[in-house]
Amino acid sequence: MNKFAFRQAQELQAKLAKAQQELGDMTTEVSSGGGAIKIVIDGQQKIRSVNISPEVINAEDAEFLEDLVMAAVNEAIQKSRELAASQLGKLTGGLKIPGLP
User: Fold this and answer.
1) What is the pLDDT of residue 63?
2) Sign, CA torsion 16/87/35/75
3) Global pTM?
4) C-alpha–C-alpha distance, residues 54 and 8, integer Å
């Protein structure tokens, strides 16, 4: 590998590492059940917070709450992946790199 290509690869690696670190600081919020469940997730798919409205907490209908939480978590993960793909795609120009969203 020539020096120019090697230097370019090192620069891209450094930019990707910086972008992945920045993704940890970026968050997105989703909700389900008309806002009864709110989840904040960062660009590295780490849940930052979960807020459950007291109105939906009912010991006799736990399944309903479970469904709301699951829907919110799944949507949060999807939005986080989209955020990561958007940010990293700017650096890679759409090139699929193993291990990156």
Assistant:
1) 92
2) negative
3) 0.74
4) 53
